């Protein structure tokens, strides 16, 4: 009996597909890879653990002070989780600049989530983010600079960043959101340069020698509900930058807002309470510019709970409650009055 051509080709096709199905690799099951200095985990080296991780994996770092540097590149969709900021410290080693790097020229990294550890500085830098996308730093204590260049969708949330001899957080040609951080004791708090686009929301930025926030070049910035206090200046908008600031407390600085004639900045519902001037046109010399104040901005003592000891919550009798669309101005919710039982 002669097989028809159509039937013959169907058998060949089924054989080929069956072979392909049989050889298809199994889907990767996300796993947790453990790092421990005492050898009780899968790795002693954080770098080796990260290098072995695949998309969906979590690298969990047990308590310890790790004399290691770490570079995460050519990776997608992995998490690096420390046992806690008080329990895990990346110390770095050698003469390398920086301790934690995400992305690496010409390689990048995508959808990387890092949380729960302290990162020390080396050579003035602590964390570098390069040529990546979807990078999240959450719940970290960074003792030095966080620097990002040509990165997108960066989110820095609930971190404490300070002690840099230059800048706490600096971005060049990048896009980032900073929410709920404390950025303190640097030369500059946050610096947006190049064509960066940043959003700062509910951050406390304090005790920086110069500006709490510096926006320059062609950068764009939105400052929403931040507390910028006890700095050289609150925020400076220079170069050809485009910015808006709304719902912020800018107080106990030398100068509040400093605006270059070449930049554009719009203000609304900010509380201003600074030593020298609340608004100036950038010099030299700086020229006081009360005309920059919109009607909705307030000039008033914020009435913090204890500004001397950095408790920047508002007292219940503060005049900064319920202003415009804001239940309260600044980063921190007000102290609730003590209820007394009759």
Give an overview in words.
The chain has 342 residues and is mainly β. Helix content is 8%, strand content 44%. It is built from 2 helices and 37 strands. Strand 1, helix 2 (46-52) and strand 2 (58-61) form a beta-alpha-beta unit. The chain is elongated. 42% of the residues are buried. The model has no long low-confidence stretch (mean pLDDT 92).
Counting H and I runs of at least 4 residues, what is the number of helices?
2
Overall 3D form: elongated
Mean pLDDT: 92
| Estimated radius of gyration | 26 Å
End-to-end C-alpha gap? 103 Å
Largest sheet: 11 strands, parallel
Q: Give the strand line-up of the largest sheet.
A: 1-2-5-8-11-14-17-20-23-26-29
Based on secondary structure, the structural category is mainly beta
Amount of beta strand: 35-45%
């Amino acid at each position: 009996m002669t097989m028809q051509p159509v039937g013959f080709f169907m058998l060949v096709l089924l054989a080929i597909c069956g072979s392909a199905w049989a050889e298809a690799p199994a889907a990767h099951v996300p796993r947790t890879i453990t790092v421990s200095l005492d050898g009780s985990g899968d790795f002693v080296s954080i770098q080796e653990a990260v290098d072995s991780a695949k998309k969906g994996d979590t690298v969990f770092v047990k308590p310890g002070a790790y004399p290691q540097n770490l570079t995460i590149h050519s990776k997608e969709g992995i998490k690096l989780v420390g046992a806690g900021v008080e329990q895990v410290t990346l110390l770095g080693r050698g003469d390398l600049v920086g301790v934690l790097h995400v992305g690496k020229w010409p390689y990048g990294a995508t959808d990387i989530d890092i949380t729960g550890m302290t990162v020390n500085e080396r050579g003035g830098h602590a964390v570098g983010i390069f040529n990546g996308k979807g990078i999240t730093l959450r719940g970290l204590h960074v003792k030095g600079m966080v620097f990002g260049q040509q990165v997108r969708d960066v989110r820095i949330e609930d971190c404490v960043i300070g002690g840099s001899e230059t800048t706490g957080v600096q971005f060049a040609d990048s896009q980032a959101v900073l929410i709920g951080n404390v950025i303190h004791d640097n030369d500059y708090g946050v610096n947006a340069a190049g064509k960066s686009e940043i959003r700062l929301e509910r951050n406390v930025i304090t005790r920086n020698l110069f500006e709490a926030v510096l926006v320059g070049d062609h950068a764009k910035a939105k400052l929403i509900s931040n507390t910028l206090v006890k700095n050289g200046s609150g925020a400076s908008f220079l170069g050809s930058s485009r910015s808006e600031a709304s719902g912020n407390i800018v107080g106990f600085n030398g100068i509040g807002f400093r605006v270059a004639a070449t930049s554009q900045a719009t203000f609304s519902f900010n509380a201003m309470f600074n030593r020298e001037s609340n608004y100036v046109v950038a010099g030299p010399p700086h020229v006081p510019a009360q005309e920059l104040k919109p009607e909705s901005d307030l000039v008033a003592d914020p009435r913090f709970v204890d500004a001397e000891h950095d408790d920047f919550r508002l007292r219940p009798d503060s005049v900064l409650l319920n202003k415009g669309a804001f239940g309260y101005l600044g980063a921190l919710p007000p102290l609730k009055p003590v209820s007394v039982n009759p």
